[in-house]
Amino acid sequence: MEKKLDNFLSYIVTVNSGSENTKEAYGRDLKRYIDYLKQEGINSLDDADRTIVLGFINYLRTDKRFGEISNRSLSRYLSSLRSFYRYLLDIKEVSSNPFLSVKIPNEKTKIPDYLFEDEVDMLLDSFDLTDDFGYRDRTIFEVMYGCGLRLSELCNLKIENIDFNNQLLSILGKGSKRRLVPFYNMIKQLLENYINNIRSKYIKEEHGFVFINKNGGKLSNRGVQYLLNRTIKENNLPLQLSPHTLRHSFATHLLDAQVDIRVVQELLGHSNLSTTQIYTHITIDRLKESYNKAFASD
Question: What is the average pLDDT value for the chain, to the nearest integer?
Answer without folding.
Answer: 83
